[in-house]
Amino acid sequence: MSNIDAAKYIDTERYPIDQPDSDQYQQLVQTIREQLDAVGCAVLTGFIKRECLQEFIDEGDQVADKGHRSFNKTNVYFSKDDESLAADHPARRFYDRSNSFVPADNFGADSPLRSVYEWPPFMPFIQATLNEQEFYRYADPLADVIINVVEDGDGFPWHFDTNNYTVTLAIQNSLHGGEFKYAPNLRTPTDENYDGVKAILNGDENQVNTLELNPGDLQIFKGRYSLHRVTPVKGKRRRYVGIFSFVDQPGMVAKVERCKQLYGRTLPIHHQRENERNDNLKD
Ligand SMILES: [Fe+2]
Q1: Buried/exposed code over 2-36 (b: 16+ C-beta within 10 A; e: otherwise)
Q2: 229 C-alpha to ligand 1 centroid (Å)
Q3: Are 48 and 115 in contact (CB under 8 A)?
Q4: Where are the domains of the chain?
């Protein structure tokens, strides 16, 4: 549990997330819902007050070397190669991915990042914007609050998310690159739109939005239908993004394989829960 009252970090005048009965709160939720419906993305600029940002950056600097670096090749679906498909099919296009996630057990009771995640008004507010019926903090001690560290040369190639939504906080930008690009609603639950995906992989940016996210901005993104990527980072300064995870079932933790892949290790709870899960999800 966090020892910090995150009220001091959050610009609650602009974003009164602690006053759910106010008109301003209702309007804010409504605006975000409209943005999510239209393009699957909403950004609360300056969510963290400017004068508090240094505490978050310092935290990033303190834990950056605790990140587990992983390298692999991935297609936009995170699926394996399928030789039965045509050679130019988007599912057969693989790109280098390198990444580093600082596991959640580096963010303890004195962590500014964790204080935001655990601030009581935060989760109900995010739940309201996403209009989700079942909504819980992730119970995974390695994964509930993490930082993604991106260094010179690293990036995240085009992909669709496997989860329905992500909630992230920009903490520090790289000197160059590190832009967030996304093609809203490129596919639907019934249409993969392979031609549209192929066009973007070939460099067509007609349907692509570029977002400039600045430190302190909170982003809510529904990435299951919107193809997106982070352009390669250039320069000495690392890019830090905090990731807050929420799930639709209480007590959930990551699967053992997924956990090893992302964090390079597991905890006893991952093994205990492996057989207790009653869904058939892959991650
Ligand atoms: Fe993503």
Answers
A1: bebebeebbbbeebbbbeeeeeebeebbeebbeeb
A2: 7
A3: no
A4: 6-250
Cα dihedral 142, 276, 117, 134, rounded to 10, equals: 160
| Dist. CA 154 → ligand 1 center (Å) | 15
User: How confident is the model at residue 282, as a pLDDT?
Assistant: 59
Ligand 1 center to residue 201 CA distance, Å?
Answer: 16
130-153: string of b/e by CB count within 10 Å (b at 16+)? beeeebbbbbbebbbbbbbbbbbe
The two most distant CA atoms of the chain are separated, in Å, by 56
197 vs 21: CA distance, rounded Å: 42
C-alpha 224 to ligand 1 mean position (Å): 8
pTM for the full predicted model: 0.93
In the reported structure, the alpha carbon of residue 156 is separated from the centroid of ligand 1 by a whole-number distance in angstroms of: 8
The CATH number given to 6-250 is 2.60.120.620
Task: Return the pLDDT at 203.
Answer: 96
Inform me whether the pLDDT recorded for 105 exceeds 80: yes
How does pLDDT run across 177-226, given as a tens digit for each residue? 999 999 999 999 999 999 999 999 999 999 999 998 999 999 999 999 99
pLDDT of residue 162: 84
Whose structure tokens read 């670096």? Answer: 69
Q: Are strands 246-247 and 156-159 parallel, antiparallel or unpaired?
A: unpaired
Ligand 1 ion: Cβ-proximal residues, 5 Å cutoff = 161, 223
Contacts 24+ apart (CB under 8 A), 128-133: 128/20, 128/29, 129/29, 129/32, 129/33, 129/36, 129/42, 129/220, 130/36, 130/165, 130/220, 130/222, 131/33, 132/165, 132/248
43 alpha carbon to ligand 1 midpoint, in Å? Answer: 15
DSSP state of 110: T
